[in-house]
Amino acid sequence: MRDGLRRQYVLAGVLLVLLVAATFLLRAVIGTAFFAVTVAYVLYPLREQLLDRGLSRRVAAAVLSSAVFGVVLVTLALTAFTLYRRRGAIIALLNDLPDAVTVTVGEMTYTQQTDALVEPTIAALRGVAVDVARSAPVLALKLLLFAILLYGLLLRPGRAGRAVLNVVPREYHGIVRRFHGRTRDTLYGIYVLQAATAAGTFLIAAVTFYALGYDAPVTLAVAAGVLQFIPVVGPGVLLGVLAVVDIVGGNVVRAVLVAVVGGAVVGLLPDAVIRPRLASYAAHLPVSLYFVGFTGGVLSLGAIGFIAGPLAVALVAEAVALLSGNGDGTEQATL
Predict the structure, then answer these.
(1) Residue 61 lies in a domain
(2) Is there a contact between 318 and 229 (Cβ–Cβ < 8 Å)?
(3) Which of 225, 233, 327, 334 sits a CA distance of 20 to 30 A from 210?
């Protein structure tokens, strides 16, 4: 038995070395692989439901991976198409800004020239469009790789877990399961809650911006939905920018409406209605910890950081909870 355990440790060491080597050699697609693993974590309960309904492992994995691939592809395509069609409206909005903005407070008057900022901003927007077009083939290849990895992970999801439990001594299996539960709940909170709230924000924002008479309501709604993934900031920053632009343009009434009405229905309503209804499906991570993980992850790792950062913070919090409790993983800690 001892020889068998030693053999498991040796194999685990070999696996660790191979993982480090693979990470270095395949670092260009590490982000894609990470997203595939985290999405597979979230989709595992759906896979089990499909199996209970009589579908085979291959069919269930194919259905889920194809559905996710389609959703991601359609979302990216619609976003790119919307921004491309509305690029003229965005540039026209910038060109309509006055050459200077004058603010008077008491006896002091401050004037800010805006013409020096408009041209660099327009050039930056056009540069982003060119960069996106150039990277489209690489993005398509990574999407295909994402779908293939997701299919493989959903086809045989238990292998990684069994490998970990075979290496870890039996008395520590409870701790492993605690970290597994925290990982699952955190990813549910990031993907399911945020995605549902962002989708609701998009729909509400599209109606609101259309009712207020903005030229590009769909584009603005897409921006509001994306900003919903940024903690604390959220779509409020977009509403603030729109209010300032309206004030500068002399449309004070709409500025007040977008700040007050928009702040209520776009900024607060999705969080007040959608998030509480889905909160029971995910463990609660305090906003302060989520913001630390999100900010640090994005600054350190880029796009992958908005998932990896909060997940790392959640696992650290779980380790602290284990140390502050009995340490055997038998009691689920709450933050």
Answers:
(1) no
(2) no
(3) 233
Residue 332: per-residue pLDDT: 45
User: What is the per-residue DSSP string for 94-126?
Assistant: HHTS-SEEEEEETTEEEEEE-HHHHHHHHHHHH
What does the CA dihedral 65, 66, 68, 72 come to, rounded to 10 degrees? 130
Q: What are phi and psi of 261, to 5 degrees?
A: -70, -45
Q: Residue 113's Cα: distance from chain center in Å?
A: 36
What amino acid is encoded at 238 in this protein? L
Q: What is the pLDDT of residues 34-90, one digit of tens each?
A: 888 888 888 888 888 898 888 888 898 899 999 988 888 887 777 777 666 666 666
Half-sphere exposure at residue 292, Cβ-oriented, CA atoms within 13 angstroms: 9
Range of the domain at 243: 172-335
Give me the residue label for tokens 């994995």: 61
How far is residue 36 from each of residues 42, 121, 134, 267, measured CA to CA in Å?
Answer: 10, 35, 24, 30
Residue 144's contacts (CB-CB under 8 Å, 6 or more residues apart) are none
pLDDT computed for residue 144 by the predictor: 85
d(CA 155, CA 165): 20
**Which regions of the chain does DSSP assign to beta strands (E)?**
100-105, 108-113
> Whole-angstrom Cα distance, residue 113 to residue 100?
4
What's the distance, CA 166 to chain centroid?
Answer: 33
Q: Distance between CA atoms of 270 and 237, rounded to whole angstroms?
A: 16
How many CA atoms lie less than 13 Å away from 26 in the CB half-sphere? 14
Any domain includes 216: yes
Distance CA 30, CA 23 (A): 7
Q: What are phi and psi of 80, to 5 degrees?
A: -65, -40
Query: How many whole angstroms separate alpha carbon 12 and alpha carbon 163?
Result: 9
| pTM over the 0.90 mark | no
Number of domains observed in the structure of the chain: 1
In a domain, 236, yes or no: yes
Instruction: Write out pLDDT tens, residues 222-239.
Output: 888 888 877 667 788 888
Q: What is the pLDDT of residue 204?
A: 92
In a domain, 38, yes or no: no
